[in-house]
Structures are given as C-alpha cells and as structure tokens.
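Late entry, written up from scratch paper. The run itself happened at the end of the previous shift, but nothing got recorded in the book at the time, so transcribing now.
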Amino acid sequence: MRIRSLGTGLALIALVVGACSSSPGGSAPASAKPKPSVPAAIGAGEGALKLVAWTSYVVGGSGGEKIEGAPDWVTPFETETGCKVTVKVGGGSSEMVELMKTGEYDGVSASGDATLRLIAGGDVAAVNTDLIPNYKNVFSGLKLQKHNSVDGVAYGVPHGRGANLLLLRTDVVPETTDSWSVVFDGGDKYKGKVTAYDYEIYIADAAVYLMATKPDLKIANPYALDATQFKAAVDLLKAQRANITTYWSAAQAQIDAFTSGDMVVGTTWQYQANVLGAAKVPVKAVKPKEGTTGWSDTWMISSKAKNPNCMYLWMNYMASPVANATATVWFGEAPTSPEACVEAEKQSPGHCDTFHATDEDYFKDVWYWNTPSKECLDGRGPICTEFSEWTKAWTEIKG
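Output as recorded:
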C-alpha cells in the first residue's frame, strides 16, 4: 500500500479558490476564463511511455512493477499500442510532484493532494476527453471534480477512489460503534491500542470530527482551517496521542497489529478490513456518522510529455473495463465505471458493492484529500493554515 505526502506552493492559491468549494466531492465551478488549449487529435503511439505512479498502479509488462502474485495489466497495453512502459514508483505526493517538474515523465497517477499543485505549476496539461473514448463511461461523480479540473476543464482521467474508514476488533470494541468519538473523546478506554494513519493529512480527519461535534468552530472544509480551527484539531490529536502506541503507514503493519490484538481500533482502508476478515480476525470497518476523508486518484499528462500519444492511449486504456477492474481489484479501491464493475465482479464477486463504487450517496460526506493553503479552500480568503504548518504540527503531535 502507499504512503502519501503533501506540500504546497504559492501558485496553487489562485487556482484552488476557483476550483474548490466547501462541500465534499463537489464539481469544480466554471468561469469565464479562456480555456487552455488541448490537442484536436492524436496519432500513433511513439513506442515508449514513462510514468510516475503509486505502487501497484502499473504492474507487469516490460517496465512496470514486478509484484509476486499480481496480475499483469501492462503487457496487454504494450501489445495493443506498441508503447513500452516504464514506471517510477513514487514515495509520496511531494516526491511525485517534484519528479513531474523534471519533464522526464509523460504522466502521473496523482492524488487530490497533488493534482492542483501540478496544474498550478504548469506541470500537467488539460486533456481533450473526446480523444479518450472510455471517459464517457466514467461515473459522473468522478468527472470534473474540484481535485481534477479547473474552470470546468478536465485535467485527467479518474483511476479509482476510496474512503478512510474506522476499523475495530469486535471482540474488544462494541460492534455497534459508528462514531470517530471512539478514537478521540473515548480513546482512553482503549489506551495503547488506538491507531491512526501516520500522515500530516490526518489532521483533516480530526477536523471532520470537529465539524460534526463542535459546530461553534464553523469548520466548512477540513482542509481549510483558520488559526482557531487548526488549533482545535491539533489539540484533539495531541490528546489522542496519549492513547496511541503506534501510528501505521503500511497496510500490512496494521493488518499484523490487528491480528495480534496490539491494535483494536483506528482509521483504516477497506483493503485491510478485507484481508483481516478473510483471515477470520473479528473486525468490522465502518464509515462513521460524522463523515470521513478519502482519496480519488487521476491519471494526468505532463505538459512536457515526450510521448503524448502513448499517454493518451494509456489514459484511455486505464479507463477501459478490464484494465480498470484489474488494477482497482488488485489495489483495493472502487473502479470508475459501470462497465469496470461488471469486469470486477468476474474477478472478485461483490467488489463494487464492498467499495461502494456505484453509490454516489456513500461518497457525499467523503472529503477527498486536498492541499491546505493560506488561501482558504472554502473561499474565506488568505486566513487559513498552509501545509508547512500542518507538517510542523504533526511532528509536535507525534512527539
């Protein structure tokens, strides 16, 4: 599984205000700004494709990741297009942004904490979705969102999405638990066995909880926190720290700890819950009633791509039913189209139901990762806490 990390840049500010709102998963608003140019057509593949991607996103083929037991979805693409793929696995969003700035790569699988930075920096280009036939099948809830478009212009093709969930061992924590309060206000009861994701963006999870439980703070967006709101989230996490022995960053580490009983409650991904359930460990994963954070990844083309035709072919391929199903089933996230869900059902029965792929209502209170900046993402102006301060605070929280 992946570790994601954030950063911020001054160029992001103007774009973010136009692209973001105070509701999760909402579409980016359009404006009267001139639209960026996009190609009118693509030709034959250039024969090569260099990608930056999260681990397990580009597997097989001549230069994809080689993972034991994983399916190979790169070889069929290479055979069909003649584009030989090589991948650089990113260690986090900040690293992936820096790699894309070099101009050495044709495309990237970017999370919402990187997409707007890449757009603002001019490192990725708008796309002509008419040249990507499979784009028309992508769920509408993933198109032209505030993390993958600006002013109504698409900057990529969705790859997959997921929600950060609450995981609990039902032999220790009541199975009826449905609130983040169990890891925040009620964490003392499970002192030493509470866990949380080891990542600065986890501050947003605390903010989501405060949105629901401390309305006087008037938090409208968990990634847009003024000084008072930010302090409240940080204080909540500092109090939680006393109940946490270990933060997790790798999925397998959390799986091992829940299996042994060293962890009994904390934030997770559906993947870990599935693995633990299959091993008969008594666990349950829920999306708490306060809502949650999550991710939605996008394939984006470099503005300096040396192989733009191959990248367009790749974006279309990764939105195709079989490829998208294979990649998202392997990784453990929701496919991006009804057609991909049909294929996913063949590979892993019940997959799309488990990951709520077709249930847009499920994602209405999932706040996809975004980049905190001084210019508030909820439109309040330059009064919010930028990401460098989140990083400092996270170091203080963990001690």
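The longest strand covers residues 292-302.
(Scratch paper discarded after transcription.)
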